[in-house]
Design goal:
Layout lengths: L2 H14 L5 E10 L11 E6 L8 E5 L9 E11 L2 H15 L4 E8 L14 H11 L3 E19 L4 E17 L8 E4 L2 E9 L2 H6 L4 H14 L2 H4 L2 E10 L4 H11 L3 H14 L4 H16 L3 H18 L2 H4 L11 H26 L8
Parallel strand pairs: 2-5, 2-6
Antiparallel strand pairs: 1-10, 3-4, 4-6, 6-7, 7-8, 7-9
Helix pairs in contact: 2-5, 7-8, 8-9, 9-10, 10-12
């Protein structure tokens, strides 16, 4: 059983057990960055501190195989140095679009072009002070390196009698932040992410030839690499999936009407009535989950966590977790309610843990977010 199939079974067992009506909801919220900039750092310069790089080259590996479901016909692995100009422009543009700093300027001149001997990539204190003064900025964000690894494969899918060509690219940008009057960088960001292309055809040669070329891949991957460190540098918005339980009783159905009218306070009151009325069982758990969601939608994360903990307690009893302790192994499908509620609880606790850091990072906007 694949990991995806396993999760899907768990998800269905939890959501649709007992013919429970469920509505998916999306929620947008902000997460803190790994880096916290002092509020007086308002003007940033993005600079190119990448070293001179050798010519890009391709390492080719070939393999045949082996799987019952598909046969790998060819494999090519490439290691590339990213395009500094493209990555730098992408980094500066993405930072500017977030409007976190008052101004973001770009200095695309390579700072190490005139190096006669190899040196450490970090800018010296004197270089940082000279650059910040000449560029009239408070600090520097330096692109130090961009490494790219690509994996091209052509595989035959016997079940479909088709060939599929795939290109899986991983990017590894390195960024350092420098402030004046300080020895060494304030922080170093070693980020990574991936980008993917595929093409399917009944013709093996076409499955490979229709994929993006290495030249175009390098441009797109370099542009993508510039965006990757931004989530570690700046607070960012994310979208998460949540689920609302709407059936099983009059209160649950009436509360769903209030939700559609965006009246979460009234919905919470009805869910609390259901929670108090039910001594145990799934309806009590569903009500507690809904209350937690309601408080999350109202940005009351502590209250949401409190009710998610109550839902977890009920789920613990429903799935008879106590009896599972003596078993040598427990499959996730055996405890779907407890695991699903715990997953939501964990998400809330992560949000709560990040709130102090997020508030500190958003002080420059009077915490208006």
């Amino acid at each position: 059983m694949t990991k995806y199939t396993h999760y899907l079974l768990l998800f269905c067992a939890f959501l649709f057990g007992g013919c429970q009506s469920v509505e998916p909801l999306s929620i947008d919220y902000m997460l803190p960055a790994e880096v916290s900039f002092p509020s007086n750092l308002r003007r940033a310069a993005v600079v190119n501190n990448m070293p001179p790089v050798p010519d890009n080259h391709l390492i080719i590996e070939e393999s045949k195989d082996k799987s019952k479901n598909q046969t790998e016909m060819a494999r090519k692995t490439g290691y590339f140095n990213g395009n500094a100009r493209i990555a730098l422009e992408s980094l500066a543009e993405t930072l500017a679009e977030e409007k976190y700093f008052d101004e973001v300027i770009i200095c695309d001149s390579a700072l190490r072009t005139d190096d006669k001997v190899q040196r450490e990539t970090a800018l010296s204190r004197e270089e940082v002070e000279t650059l910040t003064e000449s560029l009239d900025v408070d600090f520097l964000i330096a692109l130090e390196n961009v490494q790219i690894r690509s994996l091209r494969k052509i595989e035959f899918l016997p079940e479909w009698r088709l060939y599929t060509g795939t290109l899986d690219v991983k990017v590894y940008p390195t960024v350092k932040v420098y402030i004046p009057r300080r020895n060494g960088p304030m922080v170093t960001i070693n980020a990574q992410d991936s980008i993917f292309w595929d093409y399917t055809s009944s013709n093996m040669a076409q499955a490979g030839s229709k994929l993006i070329s290495d030249e175009e891949m390098l441009k797109e991957a370099s542009d993508f690499a510039g965006t990757v460190p931004v989530k570690q540098l700046l607070p960012y918005w994310t979208t998460a999936q949540r689920y609302l339980f709407t059936g099983g009783s009059v209160n649950m159905r009436d509360a769903a009407v209030f939700v559609r009218e965006n009246d979460w306070e009234q919905a919470i009151e009805l869910w609390k009535q259901t929670y108090e009325k039910k001594k145990k069982g799934k309806q009590k758990m569903y009500a507690a989950c809904n209350i937690a969601l309601g408080y999350e939608m109202l940005d009351s994360i502590s209250n949401a966590e409190e009710w998610a903990l109550k839902a977890q307690t009920v789920a613990y009893e429903i799935d008879k977790i106590e009896e599972m302790k003596d078993k040598a192994s427990v499959d996730a499908i055996d405890v779907p309610n407890y695991l699903a509620v715990t997953r939501y609880l964990t998400a809330l606790q992560e949000r709560k843990a990040g709130m102090p850091r997020l508030k500190a990072q958003m002080e420059r906007f009077q915490n208006d977010f």
